[in-house]
Amino acid sequence: MYVVQCGDHTQSLYCGISTDPERRLKEHNESNKKGAKYTRSRRPVRLMFTQECESRSDALKKEAAFKKLSRDQKLKYMCEYIEEQMMLQIANAPQMKEVDDSDKAIDEDSKPNN
Fold it and tell me: What's the pTM value of the predicted model, to 2 decimals?
């Protein structure tokens, strides 16, 4: 699933699904046949958000649910998703694992001997 921000006066959001969001963005901005009818009169559009989905079916469900949200809810959803992904990246970073391992070693060294 991807979201683009349109270049119209309201900066409207358009949501769609694609296996290649960058290609799709180019189609929205350059093609009169491949770009969505909605975005043709609202160019340029810029890619704001992508979310990988397990399947096409999953992507269609997420897209349908996203389209039902208000603009504020859409922005909140995108921010929360991006924040969650960043926290996962930080938690899985090699430096963080080293810190976790050293914390465990300190914890075990500080246990009283019975």
Answer: 0.79
